[in-house]
């Protein structure tokens, strides 16, 4: 049994009785990340950008070092194009809310049918306030993006094309470069929800051409409560600070303030310093293992799970089931409510997710009330999948009595 | 009457020591629940706070409260059947005063996830609140 990566994840070591198949909700945290978070509180415990004392200066340098690391991770030249946020949801809200003063009722926002609520609700709010129209790119019958539909809905009225890099329900990898180029061809911005993709996919801005990529640390082996927007300083300067307060001004008087330039204009208040340092360690972990290795491993486990599920009668997989599906396998079992399955699998130590997965409209589109989802990380093994399948077969048998 | 039914639940569940048997018993309770007419599977009869859909229809006849119910999930339907077995046919006062600690005795609550335990509380609160209208 390949346990080499499990050893680097304390949860796996402490809880061998749990089969963790819920990495799309949150990945497990590596020892190196936990050490980095801990080291902040034991050795670098000071605020950033404020003090002149030695520890503050040191931790500011470490914090800004992670910004450079994220920039390099995403292949952008200027680290001032990186904003630290509390996660993907925060990043998308920050971006979308700024367009409340930019869009008009003549404009369209283009999304896909596969949006997580985090990349749907903020745009719905903008559309309601501005009168802009939301259009959706359809999926094919095989759960891939329908590129003809994309070409049909993206036109000269389009100002935003926002989409997931990988669907959190379908696991479908969407063609980021193609959609970004389509957006740019009509003068629209390309905004990418990269939450499910950052740990296993190429996120190079130079190759993918996005205007903004948003992701969360906790889905890439890092701590919860921190994420990033990766963009360019000019795009970020166009955005209106979502929060205002300490640490984000050029100058302030009793009557008014002038925000500083990006990225600090978007980082009011004391940030999650320990979390950012943990994110830095998570990027080091991914680079040490190598993204190609992570991608190949997760793709292999995804294929393996799809094949095993396909062999079980009454199972329906919502995914392309080919190499455009990575990390996530969602399925239903004929005649079995997903909530019953979740209850019985939980009793057998299988941690996975069932329900609407914060994508309720997509559930309606797929014509289901919810789905069961197995999702994987670098520590996932074929043995994990095998154990889950034994539990799955036992649960189905109990429910079909 | 409720006390007798609770005692029966306790002795029934005592026959099933493992979690598998407890769940299979719950599932079989759900399967033996009489069908709820589709006219009651509407929002007005839906219990809020449950992860799966749960409907209860209550009515009063000659000072006695009766319940019918259903769920789209089998285990939940078993819980619905258990509560109907305990409450249906009792007086409003009995239902109001019923001590639900037996759910811990039969280890039902400890076998439920937090969200399902919250759903169970929602069902009990709904049935008790309905009954109180007739006191």
Walkthrough of the structure:
The complex is a heterodimer of chains A (about 400) and B (about 140). Chain A has about 400 residues and is an alpha/beta fold. Chain A has two domains: about 5-30 and about 290-400, Aspartate Aminotransferase, domain 1 (Alpha-Beta Complex), CATH 3.90.1150; about 35-290, 3-Layer(aba) Sandwich (Aspartate Aminotransferase, domain 2). Chain A is built from 14 helices and 15 strands. Chain A has helices at about 10-15, 30-45, 55-75, 90-100, 120-130, 145-155, 175-185, 205-210, 235-240, 275-290, 290-310, 340-345, 360-365, 380-400, and strands at about 20, 80-85, 110, 135, 160-165, 190-195, 210-215, 225-230, 250, 255-260, 315, 330-335, 350, 355, 370-375. In chain A, the strands form four sheets. In chain A, strands 2-8-7-6-5-3-4 form a seven-stranded mixed beta sheet, sandwiched between helices. A four-stranded antiparallel beta sheet of chain A has the order 11-12-15-14, with helices on one face. In chain A, α8 (about 205-210) links the parallel β6 and β7. In chain A, α10 crosses α11 (about 290-310) and α12 (about 340-345) packs across α14 (about 380-400). Chain A is globular and about 70 Å long. Chain A starts with 9 loop residues before the first helix and ends with a helix. Chain B is mainly α. Chain B has one domain: Sufe protein. Chain: A, CATH 3.90.1010.10. Chain B contains six helices and two strands, in the order ααββαααα. Chain B has helices at about 1-15, 20-30, 75-85, 90-95, 100-105, 115-130, and strands spanning about 55-60, 65-70. Chain B has a two-stranded antiparallel sheet with strand order 1-2. In chain B, β1 and β2 form a beta hairpin. In chain B, α2 (about 20-30) crosses α3 (about 75-85). Chain B starts with a helix and ends with a helix. The interface of A and B includes residues 339, 340 and 398 of A.
